[in-house]
């Protein structure tokens, strides 16, 4: 029981974070994290140390569960439902942060699934390129290519979302 408790306390926050970023739904993220932990517990007796890192395996399971849920969805979560506010800042800073978070969420939702996954694992899950590549089952070069394409696309999408209509080159 102590080992299970330690595993949950160490891994749950990152699994929840991955689920939230991929699914934009805290309840679904909790379901994914819980299912990942259950599968880990069930597979524990057959685990072979040294064959793969438990972190990589757990993130792969969570990622696959997220993909399954995304495939089953008929409609996307509206970026308006995502609210990220830092209460220590003033209202104008909060508004700007909320607008930036909303624009980023919209831009991330427009990325192809593999690019969004690469960005999520690398930036939001703070995985190294090696860990993210292993989690996605691709080479490091393929991951770096996905990241480069995703960054370029995000740059364009973010700049398009911050332009004032009718005025070229003017940003809000």
Describe this structure in words.
The chain has 172 residues and is mostly helical. Helix content is 71%, strand content 0%. The protein contains 7 helices and no strands. It has helices at residues 2-23, 26-43, 54-72, 91-110, 113-124, 129-136, 140-162. The longest helix is centred in the C-terminal third of the chain and has 23 residues, at 140-162. The termini are far apart. The model is unreliable at 167-172 (pLDDT under 50).
Helix content: over 70%
Number of helices: 7
Global geometry: globular
Number of separate domains: 2
CATH superfamily of the largest domain: Winged helix-like DNA-binding domain superfamily/Winged helix DNA-binding domain
Which ranges are low-confidence, i.e. pLDDT below 50, for 5 or more consecutive residues? 167-172
Spatial extent as radius of gyration? 18 Å
How many strand units? Answer: 0
Binned strand content: under 5%
**Level-1 CATH class name of the largest domain:** Mainly Alpha
Residue-averaged pLDDT, rounded? 82
Biggest sheet statistics: none
CATH topology (level 3) name of the largest domain: Arc Repressor Mutant, subunit A
Structural class: mainly alpha
- CA(first)-CA(last) distance: 54 Å
SSE order, one letter for each helix or strand:
HHHHHHH
| CATH architectural designation of the largest domain | Orthogonal Bundle
């Amino acid at each position: 029981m102590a080992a299970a408790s330690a595993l949950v306390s160490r891994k749950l926050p990152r699994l929840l974070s991955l689920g939230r970023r991929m699914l934009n739904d805290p309840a679904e993220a909790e379901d994914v994290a819980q299912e990942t932990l259950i599968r880990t517990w069930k597979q524990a007796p057959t685990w072979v140390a040294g064959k793969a890192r438990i972190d990589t395996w757990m993130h792969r399971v969570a990622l696959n569960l997220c993909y399954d849920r995304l495939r089953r969805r008929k409609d996307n979560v509206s970026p308006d439902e995502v609210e990220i506010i830092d209460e220590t800042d003033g209202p104008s800073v909060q508004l700007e942060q909320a607008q930036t978070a909303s624009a980023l969420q919209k831009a991330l939702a427009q990325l192809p699934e593999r690019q969004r996954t690469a960005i999520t694992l690398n930036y939001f899950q703070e995985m190294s390129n090696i860990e993210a590549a292993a989690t996605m089952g691709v080479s490091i070069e393929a991951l770096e290519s996905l990241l480069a394409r995703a960054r370029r696309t995000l740059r364009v999408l973010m700049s398009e979302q911050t332009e004032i209509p009718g005025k070229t080159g003017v940003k809000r």
